[in-house]
Design a protein that fits this description.
Layout lengths: L3 H13 L16 E10 L2 E4 L5 E4 L2 E11 L5 E14 L6 E15 L7 E15 L7 E15 L4 E13 L5 E7 L2 E8 L3 E14 L1
Antiparallel strand pairs: 1-4, 1-12, 2-3, 2-11, 3-5, 4-5, 5-6, 6-7, 7-8, 8-9, 9-12, 10-11
């Protein structure tokens, strides 16, 4: 929750920050770029194999990094990575610490040429990895995709503010067993995917350096 004020301030900055002057004309959209983000990630649910009990991923802070390279004058290739440390919880059951990571390769394209706050569309394909604590099972990797709608605003020739909302969908076979581990009674798979897909939503804000 403590990250929400930061995101709100960033959005205000996007709409109110001055555009770089003529002598500091921002670099073209399709430049090389590195952009670290901080934000908040929501969603995701699973089911216990034995009891049918449902588990939810707690909403929690997330961190991300986007690396962009020019595809042409206006579009970019993008490598996107994000990480969320959270918990699976369900009623009175003991929580399970889980790390959720996404690694996607895709691109971005501007939707408008407004120099003050330029909207863009981004997306990618890749993988999701769910990693529980070592004593609570093994990790699970699934194919996933993402789609983002964002805003950019220049601060200087090389520096921009970026804010985006990104949907993240992981494809998992119904009843795919995950978080499998071995103990005194042998192998066990406590939890499965509750459907064919796991959806999360991330709200991210950060600074992008172009060169």
């Amino acid at each position: 929750m403590r990250y929400r004020p930061f995101i709100g301030v960033t959005l205000v900055a996007l709409l109110g920050c001055p555009v770089a002057g003529a002598a500091e004309k921002p670099l073209p959209y399709g430049s090389f770029e590195i952009a670290p983000f901080v934000g908040y990630q929501l969603g995701g649910n699973f089911k216990d194999l034995d009891s049918g009990q449902h588990y939810n991923l707690n909403d929690h802070a997330a961190f991300a990094l986007a690396l962009d390279a020019p595809a042409d004058y206006s579009t970019q290739y993008e490598l996107f990575y994000s990480r969320q440390n959270t918990e699976l919880t369900s009623g009175g059951a003991a929580p399970i610490d889980v790390r959720v990571e996404y690694l996607h390769l895709g691109g971005s394209i501007p939707l408008d040429e407004n120099p003050r706050a330029r909207p863009y569309l981004a997306g990618g394909l890749g993988v999701t990895r769910f990693t529980p604590d070592s004593d609570q099972g093994h990790d699970h990797t699934a194919f996933s995709l993402s789609l983002a709608l964002g805003l950019r605003a220049p601060l200087t020739r090389h520096l921009q503010v970026r804010a985006e909302a990104r949907g993240l969908l992981s494809f998992m076979n119904t009843d795919t067993a995950i978080f499998c581990g071995s103990g005194q009674v042998g192998a066990a798979c406590r939890i499965t995917a509750s459907g064919s897909g796991q959806f999360q939503m991330a709200f991210l804000a950060g600074l992008a350096y172009q060169f």
